[in-house]
Write a structure and sequence with these properties.
This protein is an alpha/beta fold. It has one domain: P-loop containing nucleotide triphosphate hydrolases (Rossmann fold). It is built from eight helices and seven strands. The protein starts with a helix and ends with a helix. The structure holds magnesium ion (MG) and zinc ion. The site of magnesium ion (MG) has 4 residues, from helix 2.
Length: 242
Amino acid sequence: MSQKRIIQIEKDILSHNDDFAGRNRAWATEHGVFALNLVSSPGSGKTTLLCRTAEALKGRYPMAVIEGDQQTSFDADRIRATGIPAIQVNTGKGCHLDAHMVESAIAKLGVADDSVLFIENVGNLVCPAAFDLGEAYKVAILSVTEGEDKPLKYPDMFHAASMMILNKTDLLPHTDFDVARCIEFAKRVNPEIVVIQLSARTGEGFDAWLAWINEGRRRMVAQRIAQLEAKLAAAKASLETR
Ligand code: MG
Ligand code: ZN
């Protein structure tokens, strides 16, 4: 196959994906669902982060989790143990979730209105950057046991993410990880990126993360109410002109 043909196929796949992503985003807006796409290398602590988040926010508002892994349902089992609905999507040989998989998972899960929907992507800092799932934001998680130069090594991902979480801060005394340098690298590829430092194991730094989720969800709910009010106003106007 020629290089040109390969590039064309990749473009077609991404444009097809974007159609599904657009539908997912419209669905989320209509239902007041705040959807986050969590991306990282394997082992950064995404599932532990989600378990503690689920425990902290349980009872305040509905949540749901889509777990992406090549094999096993270990992560979905861990989430369900917290009492939050979760569905496992196995990608087999695939190395990322796509928007169509997310659309099917949402339909199977039955996500409540005004929920927070967490989508834990397959551990991979490369192609999930290119696949829009219809999320409000991508959140990149980097643990302090990894290299602080990852934002420069995987610039597409840190450019696409709205937030970088530096996880496992409880381990900082045992590593050579330079937090200031890492943040400087992340801002170099994405000056707008929001950075939160936390430990999903001890809970330190969690308040800022939970506050950010609350604020994002509040905006989605406000948007849903505004849409409903606009529909109501249009219906009233059409009645009055009869
Ligand atoms: Mg996981
Ligand atoms: Zn992939």
